[in-house]
Write a structure and sequence with these properties.
Blueprint (H helix, E strand, L loop, with lengths): L1 E2 L9 E8 L4 E8 L26 E8 L6 E2 L16
Antiparallel strand pairs: 1-5, 2-3, 2-4
The protein binds calcium ion.
C-alpha cells in the first residue's frame, strides 16, 4: 500500500471478501489508510474454517478498494495463496 493521506481519519479503504456464488459475503477483512503505514507490503489472512458447511460450493475471493477525492492511496495485491489443512475423516 502507498498512501499520501496524513489525516488520522480513515478516507481510503481496502477490503477482501469471501463470497458465495450468489454474491453473499461469508467472511471479510478490511483496512484503511489510518491503520497502515504507507508504502510497504502487508500480509493478510482470512481463516475460513467456520465456513466448512460451504464445502463443495463455489466461493470467490474479491478485492475491493474505495478512496475519496483527494490524497491518493494505492492498494496492490500480490502473491495470493490458498492454504488448506486437511485431515482424514474419522
Ligand atoms: Ca484519499
Amino acid at each position: 500500500m502507498y498512501t499520501s493521506e496524513s489525516a488520522s481519519y480513515p478516507y481510503d479503504y481496502f477490503y477482501v471478501h469471501i463470497k458465495d456464488s450468489d454474491g453473499n459475503t461469508l467472511a471479510s477483512v478490511s483496512e484503511d489508510n489510518t491503520t497502515l503505514d504507507g508504502d510497504r507490503w502487508y500480509v493478510y489472512s482470512i481463516d475460513i474454517t467456520n465456513l466448512i458447511s460451504f464445502g463443495g460450493q463455489t466461493m470467490r475471493v474479491c478485492f475491493h478498494a474505495t478512496t475519496d477525492f483527494s490524497y491518493l492511496t494505492s492498494f496492490y495485491v500480490d502473491e495470493v495463496a490458498f492454504i488448506m489443512h486437511c485431515s482424514p475423516y474419522p
